C-alpha cells in the first residue's frame, strides 16, 4: 500500500504543480497577502501595502448567497405510495441528517468558499458505526437505560462523518464518469497527535526521538473499498490498519466549479476571482501608491526659501533659518517662503483608474 500511495502522490503532485501555484495566488488575493509592485517612498518611511479587500468581499458575498436554507428532495418512483414515503419519511430524514452533520462541523460554507477561491471543493462522507459503540453507550447498557434514552442518544450522535477537505491538499484520480476513484489527502500532523491516535509504533522511523510539536507528513488514501493512511514518505513510512467502509463507491464528494479548457499552462480550473486577478492586484497597487504619496507629503520636512540679499542689508538678521520643531516661530522677509519638501504627486489619473477598474470588475466578476 505504501508504495502505491507514495508513487501516486509523487505523480499527481508533479502534474498539479502549476495549478497549485495558481491556487496560492488566489488564496493570497482572498487574504490580501499578494506581492504588490508599488512606488517606493520618497522619505524614509516604509511602504505599507493597502488592499481594497474586494477579492475577499466578492467570495464572501458569493458564499452568503449560496449557503441559504437547503432542502433536499427525493425523486420517488412507484406512484402515490412512493411519493408519500419520500415526502413523509425520506426527505425529513435526509434534511435533518445534513443539518445535524453541518451543525456538528461546518461543511457547507467551506464548500462554497473553496469553490469561490479555487474552483472546486471536496468532502469526505463515511459511516461511523463506532459512534454507537463507545464508552458512553456501554455505560448506558450497564445502567439499564430505557429505549427512549437509547433513541435520544442515537438521535444526538448520528453515526456518519462528514468532513471538508482543503482543496489544496487533495490529489484525485477520476474514473470514466469523472468521479473520484482514488483520492489522496496530504496533510501534516504533530508527532504527539499521531501517537495519541495510532500509537507510538506508527511513527515513521522506529526508535527515533520526535518532539511532540514536530510535524510529520500524513497521507490519507481513499478508494471504493478502503480508507488507508501513510505516515511519512518512502521506505520508512508507517501504515496504520486500513478501514473498510463497505460503501461500494469512493466516499469523497467532488464539487466542481469553473472548468478551464485544455491548455499548455497546466491549469485545470478557475475560482470566482480568476478572470479578475490582475485587475484586483492593480487596484491594490494603485491604492498603495496613493497612500504612500499622502504619507510622503504629510511627513515631508519643511523647506525655507530665504532672501540672502535682503537679510544682508538688515542689521541683526541671520543668514539662515533655524528650525526648532513644531512650535518654532520663523520671521520671514519679503520674497521668503516656508513649504514642505517637494514629493512626487499622484494625479487624478490614479483615481480615475480605480473608478474605471471597478466598472470592469462589475462586468467580469460580480455578475457571474
Structure commentary:
The chain is built from eleven helices and twelve strands. The chain is of the alpha+beta class and 368 residues long. The strands form four sheets. It has a five-stranded antiparallel beta sheet. Strands 2-1-8 form a three-stranded antiparallel beta sheet. Strands 9-10 form a two-stranded antiparallel ribbon. Helices cover 42% and strands 17% of the residues.
Helical coverage, percent range: 40-55%
What's the number of extended β-strand segments? 12
SS class = alpha+beta
Query: Which percent band covers the strand fraction?
Result: 15-25%
Radius of gyration: 32 Å
Helices and strands in order:
Blueprint: H1 2-15, H2 17-31, H3 54-66, H4 79-104, H5 108-118, E1 120-127, H6 135-142, H7 147-156, E2 160-165, E3 170-174, E4 180-190, H8 191-198, E5 215-222, E6 226-231, E7 243-244, E8 252-256, E9 258-259, E10 269-270, H9 277-299, E11 302-305, H10 308-313, E12 337-340, H11 348-366
Antiparallel strand pairs: 1-2, 1-8, 3-4, 4-5, 5-6, 6-7, 9-10, 11-12
Outline:
This protein is α+β, with helices and mostly antiparallel strands.
Q: What are its keywords?
A:
368 residues; alpha+beta; five-stranded antiparallel β-sheet; 17% strand; 11 helices
Amino acid at each position: 500500500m505504501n508504495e502505491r500511495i507514495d508513487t501516486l502522490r509523487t505523480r499527481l503532485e508533479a502534474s498539479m504543480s502549476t495549478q497549485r501555484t495558481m491556487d496560492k495566488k488566489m488564496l493570497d488575493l482572498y487574504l490580501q497577502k499578494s506581492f504588490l509592485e508599488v512606488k517606493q517612498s520618497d522619505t524614509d518611511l516604509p511602504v505599507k501595502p493597502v488592499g481594497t479587500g474586494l477579492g475577499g468581499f466578492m467570495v464572501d458575498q458569493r458564499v452568503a448567497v449560496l449557503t441559504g436554507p437547503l432542502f433536499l428532495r427525493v425523486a420517488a418512483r412507484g406512484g402515490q405510495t412512493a411519493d408519500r414515503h419520500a415526502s413523509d419519511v425520506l426527505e425529513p430524514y435526509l434534511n435533518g441528517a445534513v443539518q445535524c452533520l453541518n451543525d456538528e462541523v461546518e461543511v457547507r460554507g467551506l464548500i462554497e468558499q473553496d469553490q469561490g477561491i479555487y474552483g472546486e471543493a471536496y468532502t469526505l462522507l463515511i459511516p461511523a458505526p463506532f459512534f454507537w459503540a463507545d464508552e458512553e453507550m456501554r455505560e448506558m447498557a450497564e445502567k439499564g437505560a430505557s429505549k427512549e434514552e437509547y433513541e435520544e442518544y442515537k438521535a444526538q450522535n448520528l453515526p456518519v462523518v462528514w468532513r471538508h477537505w482543503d482543496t489544496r491538499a487533495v490529489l484525485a484520480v477520476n474514473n470514466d464518469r469523472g468521479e473520484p476513484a482514488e483520492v489522496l489527502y496530504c496533510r501534516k500532523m504533530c508527532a504527539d497527535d499521531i501517537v495519541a491516535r495510532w500509537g507510538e509504533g506508527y511513527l515513521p522511523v522506529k526508535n527515533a526521538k520526535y518532539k511532540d510539536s514536530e510535524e510529520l507528513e500524513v497521507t490519507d488514501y481513499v478508494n471504493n473499498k478502503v480508507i488507508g493512511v501513510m505516515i511519512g514518505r518512502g521506505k520508512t513510512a508507517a501504515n496504520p490498519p486500513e478501514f473498510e467502509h463497505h460503501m461500494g463507491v469512493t466516499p469523497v464528494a467532488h464539487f466542481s466549479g469553473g472548468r478551464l479548457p485544455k491548455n499548455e499552462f497546466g491549469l485545470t480550473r478557475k475560482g470566482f476571482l480568476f478572470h479578475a486577478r490582475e485587475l484586483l492586484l492593480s487596484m491594490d497597487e494603485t491604492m498603495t501608491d496613493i497612500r504612500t504619496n499622502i504619507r510622503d507629503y504629510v511627513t515631508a520636512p519643511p523647506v525655507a526659501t530665504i532672501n540672502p540679499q535682503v537679510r544682508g542689508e538688515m542689521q541683526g538678521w541671520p543668514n539662515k533659518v533655524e528650525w526648532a520643531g513644531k512650535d518654532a516661530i520663523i520671521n520671514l522677509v519679503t520674497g521668503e517662503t516656508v513649504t514642505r519638501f517637494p514629493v512626487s504627486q499622484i494625479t487624478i489619473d490614479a483615481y480615475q483608474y480605480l473608478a474605471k477598474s471597478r466598472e470592469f470588475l462589475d462586468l467580469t466578476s460580480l455578475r457571474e
